[in-house]
């Protein structure tokens, strides 16, 4: 059986509920659907932002995400995966990313979704620029995100 995989990079917003519902529609083998929605926040540590602009390398970003989705499919017994990542200018409160995984049981769905999000935060070819009253600046990688992703490394 072919496992349905959806990978989309888009400027437009997405409907989380519709994507989650589509994952298990008409399926009786799915026992768990896990979703993670990343939302643009208005800043951290008291530093307000007006917007976040995400840039990516078209073609390369989709290929890299696909490679990691394939790895998730080899690690966990999944029945479906959806990854949607927005690019362009995003304001606080708007969606940035969605990861949806489906499996027979919750542990596989949770772990696969977490694996994919850790990858997206640390290795996916996206660049973030924050806009604020003070100007614009590129966002550096966070050490805690790298530490989270490191636990998935096979030894």
Question: Mind explaining what this structure looks like?
Answer:
There is one protein chain. By secondary structure, the chain is an alpha+beta fold. The chain has one domain (5-150): Alpha-Beta Complex (Aldehyde Oxidoreductase, domain 3), CATH 3.90.1170.40. The chain has helices at residues 16-24, 60-75, 106-122, 143-150, and strands at residues 5-10, 32-39, 43-44, 47-48, 51-56, 78-86, 88-90, 95-103, 126-132, 135-138. A four-stranded mixed β-sheet has the order 1-6-8-2, sandwiched between helices. Strand 9 and strand 10 (135-138) form a beta hairpin. Helix 2 (60-75) packs antiparallel against helix 3 (106-122) and helix 3 (106-122) packs across helix 4. The radius of gyration is 16 Å and the shape is globular.
CATH superfamily: Molybdopterin biosynthesis MoaE subunit
Please identify, by name, the CATH architecture: Alpha-Beta Complex
Gyration radius (Cα, Å) is: 16 Å
Helix content: 25-40%
Number of domains: 1
CATH topology, by name, is Aldehyde Oxidoreductase, domain 3
Unreliable stretches covering 5 or more consecutive residues: none
Number of helices: 4
Principal-axes shape call: globular
CATH class: Alpha Beta
Strand pairing plus helix content: what structural class?
Answer: alpha+beta
Residue fraction in strands: 35-45%
The ordered string of helix (H) and strand (E) elements is EHEEEEHEEEHEEH
Q: On the 0-100 scale, what is the average pLDDT?
A: 91
Strand order of the largest sheet: 1-6-8-2
Largest sheet: 4 strands, mixed
For the record, give the distance between the C-alpha atoms at the N and C termini, rounded to a whole number.
Answer: 30 Å
Q: Find the count of extended strands (DSSP E, 2+ residues).
A: 10
């Amino acid at each position: 059986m072919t496992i349905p995989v959806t990978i989309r990079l888009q400027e437009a917003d997405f409907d989380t509920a519709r994507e989650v519902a589509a994952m298990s529609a008409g399926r009786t083998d799915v026992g768990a659907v896990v979703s993670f929605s990343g939302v643009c926040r208005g800043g951290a540590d008291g530093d307000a932002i007006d917007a976040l602009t995400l840039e990516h390398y078209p073609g390369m970003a989709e290929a890299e995400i696909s490679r990691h989705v394939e790895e998730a499919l080899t690690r966990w017994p999944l029945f479906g995966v959806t990854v949607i990542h927005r690019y362009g200018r995003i304001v606080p409160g708007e969606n940035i990313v969605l990861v949806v995984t489906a499996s027979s049981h919750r542990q596989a769905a949770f772990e696969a979704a977490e694996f994919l999000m850790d990858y997206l935060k640390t290795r996916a070819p996206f660049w973030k620029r924050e806009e604020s009253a003070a100007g614009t600046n590129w966002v550096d990688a966070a050490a805690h995100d790298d530490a989270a992703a490191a636990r998935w490394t096979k030894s």
